[in-house]
């Protein structure tokens, strides 16, 4: 029998959300020129949190103009001066991390345990890390005096709103670029709070501009003729559309798209440790993770033992209030995403796989999906091929290492993979053969600003993080 938990909610009072927000252009908040707005809701309660501006073409023009104007002075500053601003931003993020963590959990639905212990520390670390590069660009391996590109247009998704902002903005500013960033329409608030942090840090006007809006705002931004660099994280479908828009314009482009990672467990792996890694791989952030370990490849000889342990562990996962400190799995980010997850899970059953989920009570309002696993999955099933982007694991089996490699690589994606085995030589052999940008060994979903991240094939191109991440923002 598991112990009952008393509720342990984090206080909402640490964050003060205004009833409405404007666009952040040239250091000021202002309404959209045509006055359009949209609402952002908390996916765990469907409560409206705030109303934000929907940027149109003339707002995009104004933001790019502000960024262009700011570029001249910002790019001419010595790197050591730019570093001071980035260090200041990093420290303010640390100081305000509790407020930002609660805000992120409210707007996105992710558990406070994750926003507090994973997202926010990584956001601050990313700014600290790239602050350190700003005065050392001549030693990064891109020539003695590498130059910035100009104005960067950046479009990010809703799964890690503030972390994806950090991945985009920190290296861009360190290298001397100015930015116009568009957060996702379901999670605009932390980017607007970041705009406030830029003001608090005394960042010169126009260096960072934040445009809230939907896909049409993103499309106008990436198509703007005075943008020099486009960085996008999101779906492969939109990534392809952006690649078509940017083709032939001379704009530099990086795309970080979806994934369908294999988490591969060999018979000699420590089973309990592997189970933790599988759970972290697919249920972290409700499975809204591009590098999620959504395909479990288990060696046939340990399948029964592993699945039994995995089901036992899944039965202890707590689904519910994102602000409760004991919650493991929060709310699905939007009604649309929930519908997508449901329809893919239904296709799994229709195509003949066996569905299993622990008994678990879901709240009556908000968007929820119980942690789910499918056995009897074949490589042709949609749940083995398509990115579900939810808490759904597809289990496949293999007999030999060669078969594991073949099945792991049998996907249009190539973002990440995991290997669980006691044998070091097998880890190296496998890692060499897996077509994935990141390969974790006996762990999963580990992130660090010093380590490059990015994909092969339909997972996109370009690297974010580490020294490699500078290249995307330098004229090299
Ligand atoms: P999306 O790609 O539509 O949205 C991502 C961002 O792109 C948002 O800010 C959106 O406003 C913007 N956008 C949409 N259309 C655009 C366009 N034509 N030009 C420029 N920007 C545009 O993703 P989604 O619809 O929220 O999710 C759909 C699926 O994408 C998910 O189910 C998941 O499989 C995948 N996804 C992947 C990631 C990732 O991190 N790789 C993130 C989010 C979603
Ligand atoms: Mg929201």
Lay out the secondary structure:
Layout: E1 20-21, E2 23-25, E3 28-30, E4 37-41, E5 48-53, H1 57-76, H2 79-95, H3 97-108, H4 112-133, E6 151-155, H5 161-174, E7 178-182, H6 189-200, E8 208-210, H7 215-223, E9 229-233, H8 236-246, E10 252-256, E11 262-265, H9 271-283, E12 295-299, H10 303-314, H11 335-350, E13 354-356, E14 372-375, H12 382-385, E15 392-398, H13 401-409, E16 416-420, H14 424-433, E17 438-441, E18 460-461, H15 468-471
The chain binds nicotinamide-adenine-dinucleotide (NAD) and magnesium ion.
Magnesium ion binds next to β4.
What does this structure look like?
The structure is a single chain. This protein folds into 2 domains: 12-257 and 456-471, Aldehyde Dehydrogenase, Chain A, domain 1; 262-441, Aldehyde Dehydrogenase, Chain A, domain 2. It has a 7-stranded mixed β-sheet with strand order 13-14-15-12-11-16-17, sandwiched between helices. A 6-stranded mixed β-sheet has the order 8-7-6-9-10-18, with helices on both faces. The chain is globular, with a radius of gyration of 22 Å. The longest helix has 22 residues, at 112-133. The protein is α/β, with parallel strands linked by helices and 476 residues long. It is built from 15 helices and 18 strands. Helix 9 crosses helix 10. It binds nicotinamide-adenine-dinucleotide and magnesium ion.
């Amino acid at each position: 029998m598991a112990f009952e938990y008393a509720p342990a909610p984090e206080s909402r009072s640490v964050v003060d959300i205004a009833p409405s927000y404007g666009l952040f252009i040239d250091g000021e908040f202002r309404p959209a020129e045509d006055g359009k707005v949209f609402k952002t809701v908390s996916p765990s309660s469907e409560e409206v949190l705030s109303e934000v501006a929907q940027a149109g073409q003339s707002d995009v023009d104004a933001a790019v103009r502000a960024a262009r104007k700011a570029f001249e002075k910002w790019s001419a500053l010595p790197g050591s001066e730019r570093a001071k601003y980035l260090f200041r931003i990093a420290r303010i993020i640390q100081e305000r991390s509790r407020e930002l963590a609660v805000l992120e959990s409210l707007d996105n639905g992710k558990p406070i345990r994750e926003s507090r212990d994973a997202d926010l520390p990584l956001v601050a670390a990313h700014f600290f890390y790239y602050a350190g590069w700003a005065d050392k660009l001549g030693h990064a391996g891109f020539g003695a005096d590498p130059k910035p590109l100009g104005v960067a247009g950046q479009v990010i998704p809703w799964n890690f709103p503030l972390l994806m902002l950090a991945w985009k903005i920190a290296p861009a500013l360190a290298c001397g670029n100015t930015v116009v960033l568009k957060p996702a329409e379901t999670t605009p608030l932390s980017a607007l709070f970041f705009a406030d942090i830029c003001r608090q840090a005394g960042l010169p006007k126009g260096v960072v501009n934040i445009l809230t809006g939907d896909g049409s705002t993103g499309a106008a931004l990436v198509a703007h003729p005075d943008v020099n660099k486009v960085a996008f994280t999101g779906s492969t479908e939109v990534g392809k559309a952006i690649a078509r828009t940017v083709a032939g314009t001379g704009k530099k482009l990086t795309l970080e798209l979806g994934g369908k990672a294999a988490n591969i467990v060999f018979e000699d792996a420590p089973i309990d440790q592997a189970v933790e890694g599988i759970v972290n791989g697919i249920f972290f952030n409700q499975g809204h993770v591009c590098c999620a370990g959504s395909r479990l490849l288990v060696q046939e000889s340990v399948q029964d033992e592993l699945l039994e342990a995995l089901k036992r562990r899944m039965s202890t996962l707590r689904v519910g209030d994102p602000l409760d400190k004991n919650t493991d799995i929060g709310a699905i980010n939007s009604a649309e995403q929930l519908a997508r997850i449901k329809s893919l899970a239904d296709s799994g059953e229709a195509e003949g796989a066996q569905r299993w989920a622990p008994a678990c009570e879901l709240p009556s309002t908000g968007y929820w999906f119980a942690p789910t696993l499918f056995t009897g999955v074949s490589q042709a099933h949609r749940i083995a091929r398509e990115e579900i982007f939810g808490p759904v694991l597809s289990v496949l089996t293999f007999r030999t290492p060669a078969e594991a490699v073949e099945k792991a690589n049998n996907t249009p994606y190539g973002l990440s993979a995991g290997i669980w085995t006691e044998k070091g030589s097998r880890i190296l052999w496998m890692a060499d053969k897996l077509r994935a940008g990141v390969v974790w060994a006996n762990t999963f979903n580990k992130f660090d600003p010093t380590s490059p991240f990015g994909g092969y094939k339909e997972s996109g191109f370009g690297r974010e993080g580490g020294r490699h991440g500078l290249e995307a923002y330098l004229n090299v």
